């Protein structure tokens, strides 16, 4: 649920953009990762797995309280090259695209890529981009 941002850094189009994903800006994301980490630690303690897992090296047995685990998450969580949502299919206040994937405030400019995905999907992104492309091609063909 954290919302990042992308901005130009100057008038030269070759300048790299400033990208801030704002990971873990949302408490919801932090709590989800906390619960996930606790679940995985617990899973490793089950009899069927504890026999084959020699020892828990990270984050270590002394990192046990919620606050300590959150601190561990904040220091170690990383993105997975699946950035989305910079032109989200969402209400106008978020500044992305409408239900026909047209940019708010324009009459015929569509965005058709991973940037329109409003919330992260529980999978890799590439096949969703293919699906978005196919659906939009149909939408454009029908409206032509
Ligand atoms: C290292 C890495 C590994 C990944 N592994 C997987 C994986 O295993 N499975 C999976 O499903 N997904 C994977 N992904 C994610 C997936 O590749 C992306 O989510 C997907 O490619 C996004 O598609 P897109 O069309 O939105 O953007 P892109 O594929 O980035 O396409 C954007 C295109 O726009 C062009 N472009 C940019 N600026 C301009 C401009 N000014 N004028 C003209 N053209 C421009 C670029 O050259 C590019 O061709 C991976 C991503 C990375 C970085």
Automatic annotation (TrEMBL):
It comes from the Eukaryota. The keyword rRNA processing does not apply. Residues 2-132 form the Glucose-methanol-choline oxidoreductase C-terminal domain. Keywords: FAD, Flavoprotein, Glycoprotein, Oxidoreductase, Signal. The keyword Ligase does not apply. Pfam families: GMC_oxred_C (PF05199). Its cofactor is FAD. SUPFAM superfamilies: FAD-linked reductases, C-terminal domain (SSF54373), FAD/NAD(P)-binding domain (SSF51905). Gene3D superfamilies: FAD/NAD(P)-binding domain. InterPro entries: FAD/NAD-bd_sf, GMC_OxRdtase, GMC_OxRtase_C. Coiled coil: none annotated. PANTHER family: GLUCOSE-METHANOL-CHOLINE GMC OXIDOREDUCTASE (PTHR11552), GLUCOSE-METHANOL-CHOLINE OXIDOREDUCTASE N-TERMINAL DOMAIN-CONTAINING PROTEIN (PTHR11552:SF201). Belongs to the GMC oxidoreductase family. This is Glucose-methanol-choline oxidoreductase C-terminal domain-containing protein. It comes from Hohenbuehelia grisea.
